[in-house]
Write a structure and sequence with these properties.
This protein has 14 helices and 29 strands. By secondary structure, it is an alpha+beta fold.
Length: about 550
């Protein structure tokens, strides 16, 4: 993406500070358990997660500031639940613009609308819109509260060498080069990752030629806080357009330009302004940020290269339609954090990293498929595809099957893993998240009647949790923490939402992984069954035979 900052008011600059590690000769370079390269949302989130699990982390970033453009703005309920566990979720929601309704238009006519979270009883909303610079600033503030994280600005990785049991990094700073050693290096250095080249890895996938304009405009407007997407709008004939609200009276506008547009010309504010005026019908706005972008749907063949692990845009890239880029990267971070934590503690073998590769590469493939299909619908490749799209859009006003075919960006949802860590069901379930799916939030009440959410109850635990339903106490095990929900338990289900969402008959139980994914579920759990499921979920030798 190529951008142009129009407003610099959002930029926060951080000072470079020399570290004692820089005074050591290369032969005696300091060694750290984990070094994360890249202080974007993914790298910062991973650092906080590891720190809260008790691990020392060094974060290196070649820049010294955040806030150059709003960039990613749509953060999903799943991402907010991750951030809530890390102590920043409520701050994100408080600042962000909460929304859940989207509308699709053909010209001036609404084709259909959707509701991303029609049911109540969830702590976090379906989505918020929040400029990436706010998200990063809140994450940096949280890191400042964690002495386990050492965040070093203007530290650029210039070289990488893999050894048998560690990695050596050469790092350039304003004071010159120094070296560090790490048990593990996590590459969160974005789409132009330098570390990807250092391990000899390439991307494979599709590069799209269509170009799109992003204009963040500051104005007072009465539009509802919804996602509006137009096909062939009267103000931008033959193309597509998107409107989103952000905090601070800033509105994100995306306009499709086509493959032949000259980005140097199109990004000039004097050329962008007439387009926005036609869309809004007035000139009462100022520019915050203007960017022209093409996009790619590509990924690395492997995410784990010995002791160098890739996450976020450094590992995979998708188009912005569906908000799958940053949200997928945050799922990478949470998936990796608990596994790396257990390996560092000696509680799981290195083989557990294989499951990061399996689970998150499958998620990347899913996101790439969804993103590619969205892009093909928004920017058809041929006259035949365009005619097919127009027929679908016309039929969508009257028929349900055509509504399901309209694709203005399938929005990010939690991945469902077909994972070797999951214990297959042996019981029949009529509802509830299956093994490999993420837990569902539900409203609960304490014994004193105080309202609480299931995600809040689980939040204090960084290990496996056994979620037990009903008044029977079937399993007492030291292998994991236990949360019981029933009339005689400390947590109750007054609305019945938990029982409905989990098919929670008396005595049923769900074993949750440290990232909240279901490792196994039992109608009648046993201590042996729970221990076997934990062994399988931590890749213990022989557990999956």
């Amino acid at each position: 993406m190529q951008g142009r900052d129009v407003s610099q008011s959002s930029i926060t600059q951080f000072g470079y500070h020399r570290h004692a590690d820089q005074d050591r000769p290369a032969a005696r370079a300091a060694r750290h358990p984990v070094i994360i390269v890249g202080a974007g949302p993914v790298g910062l989130t991973l650092a906080i997660d590891l720190a809260q699990r008790g691990h020392a982390v060094v974060v290196l970033d070649d820049a010294d500031r955040i806030g150059e453009g709003s960039r990613a703005i749509c953060f999903s309920k799943r991402s907010l639940e991750v951030w809530d566990r890390l102590g920043v979720g409520e701050r994100m929601v408080e600042k962000g613009v909460v929304w859940k309704v989207g509308k699709i238009f053909l010209k001036d006519d609404m084709v259909y609308q959707f509701d991303l979270l029609p049911e109540d009883g969830h702590k976090m909303p379906a989505f918020i819109n929040l400029q990436q610079y706010y998200a990063e600033a809140f994450l940096v503030d949280r890191i400042r509260e964690l002495p386990q994280v050492d965040l070093r600005w203007r530290n650029k990785v210039a070289g990488l060498e893999q050894r048998n049991d560690h990695v050596v990094l050469a790092i350039d700073t304003p004071d010159g080069r120094y070296h560090l050693k790490a048990d593990f290096v996590i590459a969160c250095d974005g789409a132009r990752s330098a570390l990807r080249g250092s391990v000899g890895a390439e991307f494979s996938g599709e590069v799209f030629e269509d170009q799109f304009l992003i204009a963040d405009v500051k104005m007072t407007a009465e539009f509802p806080t919804e996602r509006w997407f137009w096909f062939d709008p009267p103000f931008h004939a033959g193309q597509s357009a998107l409107l989103h609200r952000q905090p601070d009276d800033v509105w994100r506008i995306d306009l499709q330009l086509g493959p032949d547009a000259d980005p140097a010309v199109e990004r000039l504010p004097q050329n962008v302004r007439p387009r926005i005026e036609r869309m809004l019908g007035h000139a009462n706005f100022d520019f915050e940020w203007i960017s022209i972008y093409k996009f790619q749907c590509r990924r690395m063949q492997r995410f784990v290269h010995e002791r160098v692990i890739f996450a976020g845009d450094s590992a995979h890239q998708v188009s912005p339609f569906g908000a799958r880029g940053a949200n997928s990267g945050l799922e990478d971070a949470e998936n990796l954090a608990w596994k790396l934590s257990m390996i560092l503690r000696g509680e799981a073998p290195m083989a557990l990293l294989d499951s990061y590769e399996i689970e998150r590469s499958a998620a990347a493939d899913e996101n790439i498929r969804a993103s590619t299909r969205s892009t093909d619908f928004i920017a058809p490749h041929s006259p035949q595809e365009r005619r097919m799209r127009q027929a679908v859009l016309r039929l969508a006003k009257e028929t349900e099957f055509a509504k399901r075919m309209v694709n203005g960006g399938r929005l990010s949802t939690p991945s469902v893993y077909d994972s070797p860590l999951s214990t297959p069901d042996v019981d029949v379930w009529t509802a509830g998240p299956r093994p490999g799916a993420h837990m569902i939030d539900a409203p609960l009440a304490s014994a004193t009647g105080e309202s609480v959410h299931l995600t809040e109850v689980r939040k204090p635990f960084d290990g496996f949790v056994l979620l037990q339903s009903g008044n029977e106490v079937d399993v007492e095990t030291a292998a994991c923490k236990s949360i019981r929900i029933g009339e005689a338990a400390s947590l109750r289900d007054p609305s019945g939402a938990f029982a409905k969402r989990y098919d929670a008959t008396d005595g049923a139980a769900y074993l949750l992984r440290p990232d909240g994914y279901v490792a196994a579920r039992f109608k009648k759990p046993t201590d042996a069954g729970v221990k076997a499921a934990i062994a399988r979920a931590t890749a213990q030798a022989g557990a999956m035979s």
